Amino acid sequence: MEFAELIKIAKVENVQLSCPGLLPVKGTLCITSHHLLLSSQPGGNGEQGMVELWLLLRNIDAVEKRVASSSGSITLKCKDLKVLQLEIPGMEECLNISRSIEALSSVESVMMMYPFFYRPQSMKLKDGWQLYPLQHYYQQIATETTAWRLSCVNGEFTVCPSYPAAVIVPTAVDDNTLKKAARFHQGGRFPILSYYHKKNGTVLLRSSQPLIGPNRKRCPEDEQLLSAALNRGERGFIIDTRSAQAAKQARMMGGGTESKSSYPCWRRLHGPLERGRPLQESFIKLVEACNDTSLSMDRWLSKLESSKWLAHLKGALSTACLAAQCMEREEACVLVHGAEGTDTTLLVTALAQVILDPECRTLTGFQGLLEREWIKAGHPFHFRCARSAYSHARLKQEAPIFLLFLDCVWQLGRQFPFSLEFNEHLLLVLFEHTYASSYGTFLCNSEKERCLCEVKEKTHSLWSWLNQPSQQKKHLNPLYTYNALVIWPSVEPQSLQLWQGLFLRWIRSSQYLDEAWAEIQRLVTSCEDAPEESAGDRQCHSQPDAAHPHRQTQLGNAG
Amino acid sequence: MEHIRMPKVENVRLIDRISSRKAVLGTLYLTATHVIFVENVSETRKETWVLHSQISSIEKQATTATGCPLLIRCKNFQIIQLIIPQERDCHDVYISLIRLARPVKYEELYCFSFNPKLDKEEREQGWKLVGLKEEYNRMGVPNNYWQISDVNRDYQVCDSYPAEVYVPKSATAHVIVGSSKFRSRRRFPALSYYCKDNNASICRSSQPLSGFSARCLEDEQMLQAIRKANPGSNFIYVVDTRPKLNAMANRAAGKGYENEDNYSNIKFQFIGIENIHVMRSSLQKMLEVCELRSPSMSDFLWGLENSGWLKHIKAIMDAGIFIAKAVAEEGVSVLVHCSDGWDRTAQVCSVASLLLDPFYRTMKGFMVLIEKDWVSFGHKFNHRYGNLDGDPKEISPVIDQFIECVWQLMEQFPCAFEFNERFLIHIQHHIYSCQFGNFLCNSQKERRELKIQERTYSLWAHLWKNRADYMNPLYREDHSQTQGTLRPQTAPCNFLYKFWNGMYNRFEKGMHPRQSVTDYLMAVKEETQQLEEELEVLEERLAELKKVQLNNRKQNSKQQDRNKHIELSTSNNSIANTPQDYSSNVKSFPSRSPSQGDEEDSALILTQDNLKSSDPDLSATSDQESGVEDLSCRSPSGGGCLPSEDSGKDSDEAVFLTV
Fold it and tell me: How confident is residue B19, by pLDDT bands cut at 50, 70 and 90?
């Protein structure tokens, strides 16, 4: 396929761009294989030749056009939730532009996506891909205990196509047993170690549902695997992210949940969480409510309520806290699974780690967590983030489960303003990049697919960009101080808030809040600098971000 | 004192409202001014103090096997649940409290016995901290257009107005008196805020007695005079803050609103803020939502919406924004009224002033603002906040709403206010506490008759003395947010108004952010200041030393500074909290329906009890991670920054009857 075929028109003059909060600008609109550009022309509001818009086409979620006889307007609704308006002289031009955008923004093939073409001069291709190997994580565990080993049973992705090549499993269980246990789990996702809680040696495991089925099948190897995770006489908890009834019903479809008699050392708990379509619909409804500027106060609250987003948030935090509580307070091991084990399961295990482990609350620790618990763990980003809240396309496998995770982390940061090393801005960047990115980090659904597409060879890693000092500085929380304790959030409805920074980002001005953060930064740095030697000069200043045209932070997709 | 039937009850249990399974055993004392609960736990002996004047309702619930429950709801939104072993004791406590919580004479109120050990001079100084004459001078009046009038010197024209009122220079005494006769409660138009820059002003009054057709020449002249006092504009706005329907209904009673045809050059505007009865029941409904035990998100949001509370807050804000805009942007003067002009009018005038003038966003300025728009203009504190036993239909959270408006603005403009949330919460507390004389009675006249200033202390002096606790670290005089008029976003803006957890659930410590950014930044700020000062001193010394060529000694002192610096950051790091009962939030545990059969599949509920049996830490306060909620919320002495701290600090002065 050639991109050129999809570009019906490459350039239109005198296009007016408007978006809430900024003055409209007029300029030349260009369509390239991956971007929509608008550079202002002399006499416009902007400086001459300045790039006013630099938008990744992949970021476009919906294109709505209205044509009159001699002109037309196109509304671009982006996956990062911003809305842009283009006024185009000429009906034909308008139609051609919208056709081109529609075609280019819905290219399905991973290898045709922008990360495979993006070659910034300042970065090397291989950088960043090996920052957080599982081996490193395993070595930390190995210094504490010999009960766990690194297994390459999935080296060829044959045992479990959605698992990475290496997984951490009980030392007492050999690869053959693992293979048999894998056959007893949906998608082959047998129980593996997700997190080792150093404080008391308990572990967090995750898997998919066991294939118990209507005939109550058993699998001795799976039972062996799970009992090997426990020390003699210990008890563990299985947290099923479905309701008891849903778990039971799943038996009819060949799934199910561990029974007491087959797994006598494990007690089962249920923390039902929504996923899939209901979650996507919740996201759509919430965004709709946020964008509806005509609402009265009452209608706003009822729309907020009926979107159920905050209820999902509360559910996710509660279940993660339950898992954390079992480990920290009950000193018991925990296994988390739902059905596939790639969505709510990861939400719970990742969130529990942020709550329990101060390492996961650092900038690099958090990246490592995302790499381990979301990317390598096989969360199907490609499916889940194909479309965002505006799309008119028929929903397939979209669900904002990762966004829900980011929102939960934001809530933690709000309740514990000193305990996360990173700030809201990092969470926003992550949200953007899961939906449309210049980097390959969130491409594909699994490590297997990433290998097939040679993502790690042919695209840049988001981490290596984020870890450039100039970027890092933007994402640090000025209030951060290391907090070794567990951060138990309140999950009362009164304590949870709508994440305005994300959902209202393009709707209300954040000027006054930004000023407040600048003030906080000023106070904290002036304190750091006060002792004569300003030793805290860890971050080097310098390096203006060459890859970014002027107003891109406001308008364009970072990348 | 004669009302206390039962000064002391032992073996009373205080219930933790978040997890009802937690309860502490202790002794309950009734004194002339406070209810005090002292825990039995010997190391802590934690104390919970509640002023009688804070009690809004007492509910005796059905006796159970464990005892007789008593529920005390407070005006500062604290809820105390006690279980008293003997029904008879409970009844005595109940009867005593009913009487103690409803004093009939002003002399029974706490401020007449409260003695912070200040001498007479200090007390007088305290009352002088906030002066309205200075304030009007600051605004720039009297001047060519406005003068001070002594027409109400002996409160003869209007008994709910201050003795000194500012009126247009062209309004003669005859016009004022004539106008007052045409206004409810004779509350004639008077100056509330004057904008030096463009001569526009905010005036306030009550509704005119216009009925269907009545007119009053003097009243028309009065409004004309207000317009003339602003030569830059050829009309004034008359803002009626009531819903149009209410105002029309008033016409039938011979009251109503201005007819644009009768007054030259007015533009009339309704802004629908509901009356005190609607507001009272709205708050009631919202508090019921706050009281729900582990509500679902839907319960909460539905309840919040049904209460209508945020809608009302928004209506008040909108009115304030409208007026501020008229004054600042159009340069047009505004006359504001509602019915009597002492509730909605006070809210709206003070919100508008706050938006217009950065001075009111400072600590001192905010005190002045309350003194000006609320205290002096006869807001009926006694009736609205039920200080003395009275008509429950008169009670309404009018000033609470204003205080919330300020908080909502603080959330939108974090750098604009010199004071912090705590300042607002403490003011709210003291409006009900009756510990200071500022808010006693219904009018200036009554306060003068009672000689309040000679017999009680001023809250403002108390707050000013402790101003370090109330500072907003992000406030800077030269910051852009502290300059000029605040312009809140108006559309779309519904989502800008948020539930104020810090106020309405302030005693539920577990619900709040576990780390205070304000306190941390204040410490940082102080530290920086100190270090800078020390640095300055050191540099001076260094210069001196260099002169004498003695370079050695500076090294040591610098080292000390650094050590101190490190201490600061670590001490702020000891953040602690306990997990709440998360399992109760996980709905639909299977074993709630064991009847389903299939025994092997029934999972277990991880309840607090189950956890407790194996984990003593859950209820104890001993370990590192627990304690925040347990230690801070109740005890006035250990309470950190709560207003009850005041009562704690003053505990030795409290009049003890018993013990």
Answer: low
